[in-house]
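U., I forgot to send this yesterday:
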Amino acid sequence: MENNHLIVSISQKALIELNGKLLLVHGKEEWWEFPGGRVNEDETSLEEALKREIKEELGLDIEIKKIFTTYLFKNRYGEYLLALVYKCNLISPLDQIKPQESEIGCWKLFSEDELKDLKQVSRNTLEGLNKYFSTIINHKRSYNLSNLPDAHNHK
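Result:
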């Protein structure tokens, strides 16, 4: 019996939240998505690969907290990718952002309301956004935290 194992590349993405808004980039693929990229052959740490990608693409340093979600998809070139989306905190101030022109067309912090009307979002990013905001809403409802200020004070 022949085994048809799926061979995938690994992509890692950073879910970065600042004051209730999420950082998305509009890259060369022509849609909005979480910042990040692929793991290089010589890299042995997924977390260090993500830190490298964010530093290269945005000029920012991050702290990785935990995996938020994963998804498997086939890109427009027919390649299968396993994406790992990590919740991350910025270490660098946002005003130090320097997008890599060859990779990033533009970037923006989006509120939940702004994301509702956003066009050109990859399906996988949209699923991650929906999961993030539904988790926040359910968490606030479950613990009645809707009237409390945000726990994180980002400058």
